[in-house]
Specification:
alpha+beta, 9-stranded antiparallel β-sheet, 8-stranded antiparallel β-sheet, 12 helices, 25 strands, 30% strand, elongated
Length: 416
């Protein structure tokens, strides 16, 4: 057998798109015969993998289903022995689709050492001990924040928006302005001091300064507001009452991805997703350290302490896939961690292709179009938008596009 169908679970966080507007809901309805869509409910994430919070089931040839983690446990060959040894016989990645209607939290993911410490200290909020590097690829125009802006940009905002300077602290802002041309080490320490000062600021100070800034920006006509000012108003509308995360937009790069563009979110890097649909892959973990734009548990001190405080321009945040020289239909998004990579395969309408074999497991989801897949050699089956398959190591399922291009995204791990 070349591959196996997966039945995957959704997460209904309140920031998700609602009902039929959610790509996650549309995909779930296609991939899970038992899924019932509620037109009034948010559908935020589709999880594809073995994470215990929402594990996928594998459909076997006899019609039965089994948790994918259990099937892999009894079929180590599906990972290859090197990967099975490296990752303790477990699938090393978690693949997702996200449909974002309003901003997610200001957050970062811990590195492996910190994840182990957080899990031991607070297993209620940090349920596993793994790190969570991530890659995001836009399916639609996608808006997010990633990494600190260049110091010169942040320093300029201290002058342009005095309410921001007051929330951070006049002394800290003055130091930031002075450090904007300094050595990298001094700059990082200064940036850490300023960001920490804002995040630890008294709530009444944040609320008062944010209210003043909102009132001032609201006096500017929508046609002449800057994109950042429009974002400020939008975030304040989504999280009213003086959320400190509204001020964080002056610290972090606002990144706008076109479909097919990507971001890599390494350990201890601050980020937030704002709007749009994407596929996302990560090491198998759900560890998140949050500090704003969320009603969930916040761990502000840990967030401020853990960040790298690397400050780079927005152009450094946007990644492009690399065409596969051996397969003109395949674009690969490589990253610096061993747990996963992602590929995008686009098969022209009416054409057939065989997925490239990799020395490790793959999860494949149809993100556009449709056609057929041969799970068992010589037996084509429907393969439509939102459906998901698991491909064991070195599997090569044949795909055929129908009357539109068939586009799949493939998360995979590969032995060296």
């Amino acid at each position: 057998q070349n591959a196996y169908r997966l039945v995957c679970k959704v997460q209904q966080y309140d920031w998700g798109k609602v009902g039929q507007d959610s790509t996650v809901a549309q995909f779930a309805a296609s991939g899970d015969p038992g899924f019932k869509l509620d037109a009034a409910s948010p559908y935020a994430e589709l999880w594809m993998g073995t994470h215990k919070k929402a594990p996928s089931d594998i459909s076997l040839a006899d019609g039965s289903t089994l948790p994918l983690a259990d099937w892999i446990k009894g079929n180590r060959w599906a990972l290859t022995e090197p990967l099975a040894s490296q990752f303790d016989g477990k699938l090393p990645f978690l693949f997702k689709v996200l449909s974002i209607n309003k901003a997610l939290s200001i957050q970062a993911h811990p590195n492996k050492k910190l994840a182990e410490e957080l899990h031991a200290k607070d297993p209620e909020h940090y349920a596993d001990d793994n790190h969570k590097p991530e890659m995001t690829i836009a399916l639609t125009p996608f808006e997010g924040m990633c990494g600190f802006r260049p110091i010169s940009e942040i320093a300029a905002f201290c002058s342009t928006y005095p309410e921001f300077a007051a929330a951070v602290g006049e002394a800290e802002c003055a130091r930031l302005v002075g450090a904007s041309g300094g050595a990298d080490g001094d700059t990082k320490e200064c940036l850490k001091a300023c960001f920490t000062a804002l995040m630890m600021q008294e709530a009444n100070v944040v609320q008062a300064q944010l209210a003043g800034l909102i009132a001032r920006v609201e006096q500017i006509s929508a046609a002449t507001q800057s994109p950042l000012e429009a974002l400020l108003l939008r975030l304040n509308g989504q999280y009213p009452g003086g959320d400190v995360g509204c001020f964080v937009i002056f610290f972090l790069n606002v990144v706008n991805l076109k479909p097919g563009e990507a971001m890599f979110l390494g350990p201890n890097e601050p980020h937030a997703y704002l709007f749009g649909d994407c596929v996302e892959c990560m090491a198998t973990s759900d560890n998140v350290v949050r500090a704003g734009l969320t009603p969930k548990f916040k761990d502000v001190e840990y967030l401020c302490e853990m960040l790298t405080y690397r400050a780079e321009g927005v152009d450094k945040q946007v990644l492009q896939g690399v065409p596969d020289k051996a397969d003109p239909l395949r674009t690969v998004y490589k990253n610096p961690v061993p747990e996963f990579d992602i590929a995008r395969v686009s098969i022209p309408a009416g054409s057939s292709a065989v997925l490239a074999a990799v020395a490790g497991p793959s999860i494949v989801i149809v993100t556009a179009g449709g056609g057929t897949v041969e799970l068992v050699a010589g037996t084509p089956e429907p393969f439509t938008t939102g459906q998901v398959i698991f491909v064991p190591a070195n599997g090569r399922p044949p795909l055929t596009a129908s009357d539109a291009d068939l586009v799949v995204h493939v998360a995979f791990a590969e032995a060296d």
